[in-house]
Amino acid sequence: MVPYFLSLSLLLISAFFNSADCGSIGVNYGRVANNLPPATKVVELLKSQGLHRVKVYDTDPAVLHALSGSGIKVTVDLPNEQLFAAAKSVSFAKTWVQRNVAAYYPHTEIEAIAVGNEVFVDPHNTTKFLVPAMKNIHEALAKLNLHSDIKVSSPIALSALQNSYPSSAGSFRPELVEPVFKPMLDFLRQTGSFLMVNAYPFFAYESNTDVISLDYALFRENPGVVDAGNGLRYFSLFDAQIDAVFAAMSALKYDDIRMVVTETGWPSKGDENENGASIQNAAAYNGNLIRRILTGGGTPLRPKADITVFLFALFNENNKFGPTSERNYGLFYPNEDKVYDVPFTVEGLKNYHDRPSPVAGNRPGAGDPANGGGGSVAKSTTGNTWCVASGEAGKEKLQAALDFACGDGAADCHPIQPGATCYNPNTMEAHASFAFNSYYQKNGRKMGTCYFGGAAYVVTQPPKYGNCEFPTGY
């Protein structure tokens, strides 16, 4: 075994907070409002928060000029209303790219073009124009020799899935497979692009609070849900949703295509019937999601996938239609004050702790982990909880977390040394579980002390590893 005692500073740099090996966080800059600050101030806000990726829903010149020279990578959008023209006319696509992309690049670091948005649910029946439009836009980029630097894709909603439970059974709607998904995924493979996906665990939770665990939806500690199809354990609804899409791609033999989550978020306010819409829950979802992405590890199905996620949205947008939640997804108010305080960088995460509300509406979970079902930490017969290692975390992550727990974490790791009472079974998972639990108990079982970069979770029954007894308090 590798020695257990590494310094905390090396651990944080090399394991938990190595951004080069992890995903990245961006933000959607929507502007359906009449009270937002000018684009120049928005760019300064993004830079001050350490946000280096932004996605916009058009190609507004004021915004693209403001982003020039900022070092912020940009995803622009060709609206659904222009899909027909882009699909039918190569010259339209070429002119659009020249005016809206080439005119600003490279000073404005446009990295991707979203051709349409959630086209399959567009009431104007633009689905048949999607792939031809993507191809024409890419051809226009190629003629300007920009196709290697700027990728072309299109965000899909989870409603494009026919099946999502269990995640391993994920599949696309059959009527979309031959005419759209196969040619689109072929295009993404050929051009080295990625699939854009919009995923909102909030929608599943708010309409199914009787069967969905809030902890599962908010990335909080929970016992997880085992996928009966592949045996993988899920600890968050987000991961289950994303893996359902990965499984759908895999079913069509497109395992090699990457994914970018172009929208996800949680509203800070909602109507009376919009269960779970609150500042506390929005802060927990986005804060824990950011930690989840920036500490790496992929998903249970794709553990090595480093996923870029764009939070929705930068501001509350007062002119959006629909329920109250639609106007309250913002991370910031229009005056640039934070709606709630979450970090957006690796550095900020070092001092970040999710602070759950004492009246959070957790319910025992059951049912569909991809569409919302999951377990919550149920009350044990003794009232105690323990922290154990996740076997799906992988040896490298477990070793790094074990080194921290037994080193600067000051866990009692003497019982797992050779010849000691808990040395057997001599496995990484058993030793890490004992160390994690010692750290968890010594820190009063506080929220966040059984996380270890996603390598651990809480259980409500005493762990069983040989004859080793796990303590419940110090």
Description:
The protein is α/β, with parallel strands linked by helices. The chain folds into 2 domains: 21-349, Alpha-Beta Barrel (TIM Barrel), CATH 3.20.20; 386-459, no CATH class. The chain contains 14 helices and 15 strands. Strands 5-4-3-2-1-13-12-9-6 form a 9-stranded parallel β-sheet. It is globular and about 75 Å long. The protein starts with 7 loop residues before the first helix and ends in a 15-residue tail after the last strand. One of its GO terms (molecular function) is glucan endo-1,3-beta-D-glucosidase activity. It catalyses: Hydrolysis of (1->3)-beta-D-glucosidic linkages in (1->3)-beta-D-glucans. Residues 360-369 have a biased composition (Low complexity).
Number of strands: 15
In the sheet with the most strands, the strands line up as 5-4-3-2-1-13-12-9-6
How many domains? The number is 2
Task: Give the CATH topology of the largest domain.
Answer: TIM Barrel
Largest sheet: 9 strands, parallel
Assign the CATH architecture of the largest domain: Alpha-Beta Barrel
Structural class: alpha/beta
- Average per-residue pLDDT, rounded, comes to 87
CATH class of the largest domain: Alpha Beta
Q: Indicate the overall shape.
A: globular
Q: What is the number of helical segments per DSSP (H or I, 4+ residues)?
A: 14
Distance between the termini: 27 Å
Content of β-strand: 5-15%
User: Roughly how much helix do the residues carry, as a percent range?
Assistant: 25-40%
The CATH superfamily of the largest domain bears the name Glycosidases
N-to-C series of helices and strands: HEHEHEHHEHEEEEHEHHEEHEHEHEHHE
- Evaluate the radius of gyration: 23 Å
Low-confidence stretches: 1-21, 357-382
